[in-house]
Amino acid sequence: MKSATIQTTEHMSAEPFVVRPYFVGPIRIDPPVVLAPMADVTNGAYRRLVKRIGGPGLMVTELISTMAIHHKSARTMTMFDVTEEQRPLAVQLFGSDPAIMAEAARVAVGEGADIVDINMGCWVPKVCKTGGGAAMMKDEDMACRVVEAIIAAVEVPVTVKTRAGWHYGHLATAGLARKLEEVGVAAFALHARFAVQGHTGNADWNLIREIKQAVKCPVVGNGDIRAPQDALRMLQETGCDGVMVGRAAIGNPWIVRDTVHFLRTGDLLPPPTLDDRIEAALTHVTDLSNTLGESRAVRHLRGQLPQYLRGYHGVARVREAIHGAESIAAVASIFQTAREHLAAADDEFPLDILDTI
To answer: Which residue among 26, 121, 142, 191 is least crowded, i.e. fewest CB within 10 A of its CB?
Structure first.
């Protein structure tokens, strides 16, 4: 990606904003758009789909338990699913024991990780009760020891994804980042909410600017990127080096495509067609079935497949139908019925759609 300048109508009197790639160690991230790690979402099948449609500069696996790797869980090992078309790819690990984290990092590199990313941002109890995820921010010395052990164990760059702190009275962002940079962290991603917020409230992008000003290495901003214009605004307002697209990409790989295109050209692409959406959903479930098996893949994606039709009237009927599906053929039949009704209803579901499914 060449450097691009963007001039929006809201900033016609300002200097054009230049969008550039950034580097994680020797790895060029171009375009500076990252698909966020999301549990149960960013599996290999979805990463391949997003790379083909959206072309992000970097993707990250869903968070992987280092303890499960240590115990050689067969199911956990399927979560790597590294293929060449995904590169560059960061493997995200969570845990709290330095030795086990280092061991898992070596396994991740052996499985093909270009970057090892450490999760210090997940707020869910089953992760935090182990001392991993956002709970690592409560003990900054331990966090540094974990990171130091991983950096010593692998030759690829090591990065950290974190939150602003554990709670509103515990702002860990800039101070912890400086400590981790001294240990050798190559880049940071900040979800600009506190752990106790989960996904509620608004992300405070000022915190992204603060961490960017505190460290020399690249900083990627995460939180409330819902449209391409949000990505540009985050880059402009915070000075961060890249943007990370998270929940808006669930069932919507085109948000990544649109963001990449907008940052390159300043133009917005037309939305995907209904056929585009259905084709992507079926590609997703079919690819995942190669890893998980057909029935398990369909069950795994029951909540995500209807998201491909998000915004259409009557999608709740599709969701209800897919909830009972057990095979890819059943999913394909549901989408075909939706396609026929949508085409006959001027792109809006009639209220009685799918009553016969």
So the answer is: 26
